[in-house]
Amino acid sequence: MKTALVTGASSGIGYEMARILSHLGYDLILVARREDRLLELQKLLETHSEIIVCDLSKEEECKELYKAVKKKDISVLINNAGFGLCGSFTETDLDKELNMINVNIKAVHILTKLFLKDFVKKDDGYILNVASSAGLMAGGPLMATYYATKAYVVDFTRAINTELSDMGSNVYIGALCPGPVDTEFNDVADVKFEMKGINKKYCAKYALYNMFENRKMIIVPTAGMKLSVCASKFVPTRPLLEITRRIQERKK
Question: What is the domain-level CATH number for residue 90?
């Protein structure tokens, strides 16, 4: 039986991906900190699922997660856990930012490293790292740490994708880079987007289709966000950063 592991499965994109993967016939390993949410999700799934309560901000818990499931023949890893924070860098909380770096970067790095080795050995498997359109931009004044973490995920994924291609490997790795999505992200980051977020179920479905069917390295849902990302490449860095700052100010 095919098995997929989804981090951050208690809400948002991860929650919807878990439901879609179950519908596709995958058994699920659901990972998050909120057990009550995972239990609610578990009742909705069509296939067997296992719940693992885990704090991915802690390096040892990331490694213990891998040890707990490495014999389960996992073929899909969705690195979805992550969060943001908005505010001037001189005023935002350092501990929260370090926690964000641990979840958005270190956890993704550790889990990708450990599972990818297994996938390469059997020459099969899919890894999808949930990044953000923020990771494709020049930077994010007032969300400096968040933008930097997502840039890391995008560049990290691109590099590994190229290495796998050079090896002739059948293993897939890609990054999902959506714009605003209608999830709990806004509440956690304490922001309010001016543009309406896309539906989280649509985002999850679009991402999985482009992972399985098109094997796209960078997945950007919606034509509008693709256009914005493309247009940003033709704007000088300083004006682009100023535009981004103004957008962040309006979010608050």
Answer: 3.40.50.720
